[in-house]
């Protein structure tokens, strides 16, 4: 009997470290196929399709896989790139990894706790005074409105 799919995330509740899945198969049953592809296989949702691209709601964006708070809506800005963009992350919550796939030198960002893929971070584009754009897949996060 296949186990029923369910989301790990409960509104306002996050998983303890010792409840995190240990294998990709465990993640696969906890996430939807679309979530699994982006979060665990470093996929990218198509631009302008994510639910938070133009969201202005105040709140905190949590990791959709483990519930860790990652980004405040205070740092969200309009980049017109087709994905939610933040010029800062909550300190210590996002880790950066060099990504040389697709023949480009980019910096991947992942959840610091569960290692799920969030998107990429870019510097020097001049969008905001912090000059940083965390380009995040909507499906990697979930907004908890303030
Ligand atoms: Zn996470």
TrEMBL record:
For the keyword Metal-binding, the answer is no
Has UniProt tagged this entry with the keyword Calcium?
no
User: Which GO terms label this protein's molecular function in UniProt?
Assistant: peptide-methionine (R)-S-oxide reductase activity
The entry's keywords = Oxidoreductase
Annotated MsrB domain ranges read: 24-146
Q: Catalyzes what?
A: L-methionyl-[protein] + [thioredoxin]-disulfide + H2O = L-methionyl-(R)-S-oxide-[protein] + [thioredoxin]-dithiol
InterPro entries this protein is in?
Met_Sox_Rdtase_MsrB, Met_Sox_Rdtase_MsrB_dom, Mss4-like_sf
What processes does the entry annotate via GO biological process terms? protein repair; response to oxidative stress
Q: What class of enzyme is it?
A: oxidoreductase
Taxonomically, the superkingdom here is: Bacteria
This entry's Enzyme Commission designation comes to: 1.8.4.12
Coiled-coil stretches = none
PANTHER family with a match to the protein in the record: METHIONINE SULFOXIDE REDUCTASE, METHIONINE-R-SULFOXIDE REDUCTASE B1
Record protein name field: peptide-methionine (R)-S-oxide reductase
Record the organism: Micromonospora chokoriensis
From the broadest rank down, the organism's phylogenetic lineage runs:
Bacteria, Bacillati, Actinomycetota, Actinomycetes, Micromonosporales
């Amino acid at each position: 009997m296949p186990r029923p799919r369910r989301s790990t995330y409960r509104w306002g509740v996050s998983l303890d470290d010792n409840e995190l899945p240990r294998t990709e198969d465990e993640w696969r049953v906890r996430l939807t196929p679309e979530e699994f592809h982006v979060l665990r296989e470093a996929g990218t949702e198509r631009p302008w399709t994510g639910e938070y691209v133009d969201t202005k709601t105040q709140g905190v964006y949590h990791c959709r896989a483990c519930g860790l708070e990652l980004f405040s809506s205070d740092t969200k800005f309009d980049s017109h790139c087709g994905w939610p963009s933040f010029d800062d992350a909550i300190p210590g919550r996002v880790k950066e990894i060099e990504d040389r796939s697709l023949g480009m030198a980019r910096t991947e960002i992942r959840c610091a706790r569960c290692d799920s893929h969030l998107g990429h971070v870019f510097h020097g584009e001049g969008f905001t005074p912090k000059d940083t754009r965390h380009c995040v897949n909507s499906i990697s996060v979930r907004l908890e409105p303030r």
